[in-house]
Amino acid sequence: MKKNQFMLTVVVALAFNPVLHDQAAEAKQQLNDMDGHWARIPVEQAVQSGYVSGYADGTFQPNKPITRAELLAALVKAQQLKVSNMDTPFLDDTGWFRPYLAAGLKLSLLKMTEYNSSKFKPNQAITRGEAARLFVRAAGKDKAGSTKGYVYMTKQLGLMKGNAAGRIGMDRKMTRAEAIVVIHRLLNWQSAQIRAAGGLMEQPAYASTGELKQLVLSLESFSGDVMVSGHTVLLNPEGSGKPADYKLVLEYDSRKKATTIWLYEKPSLHKQLLMELLARYVGESADTAYQDAVKLDAGKALEARLLKTYNGKKIIMDKSGAGRSLAIIIYAN
């Protein structure tokens, strides 16, 4: 069976805009407060390239703390995502940043469980520890687990280096200059990855949650919305932005080494998508597996189960009356 591959998305341009303007004249402005500053070169390069702009008075204010909303907007723009002004689960999502907040959730840069009282607090200065989470996730390495783990990962990737003693200062507020420097390093790291991979990365047979998201985005038949929540990847095939339209869910269980496809609608409504997903796991047996799923779902029994092997992979199809039309559980062994 031909190896499954997907293009590694490379961030080659990062739009970062502290004053909420994107005009070329401002992007190429001369900064009057960067002479002698340690981050002058990367900041000026970013300004000349149009990825960041200074303020109307010609200053960049490199030592000013960067807010949560500003940094999130930068990373979302870096992924070149289409954003829309849609509602989010956050209670304080009103403002210019809401499209980026929604995209950040969809991209899994943010996780609701990490914010108390469902409040994002967009104007709050972001700490270096919190920023580390965003940078690591933007790099596709979201396996660190804790704040210390993310900080360690940024050091391993060469994104954040700390002081002479190697201390990152997790609780210290990140400055605008520091953010640009880390972004500069992130772009360089991503470029190195694409060169090392020859432009392609192989899709693992049984992916973790982050890899499942990339798998979905690589499917030719899928052009909707994707959102990661905990250990699950939610799919909105229509791309409507409505929470009720997330009709398919992928879940990876590391203990069982199994990937589950939950369907909240009849499988026949998503034939091409389901066929392509199954093909990633069972190859040419995907059509047979799909037909079995349709037959099981169409049966009169409210609850039914099918255990079968397709192309050497054990699959359990479970029809339940719990609001889910069908669960397709694919085991690694």
From TrEMBL:
InterPro entries: Cell_Envelope_Struct_Comp, SLH_dom. It holds the Pfam family SLH. Residues 26-89 form the SLH domain. PANTHER family: OUTER MEMBRANE PROTEIN ALPHA-RELATED, S-LAYER PROTEIN _ PEPTIDOGLYCAN ENDO-BETA-N-ACETYLGLUCOSAMINIDASE. This is SLH domain-containing protein. It comes from Paenibacillus sp. BIHB 4019.
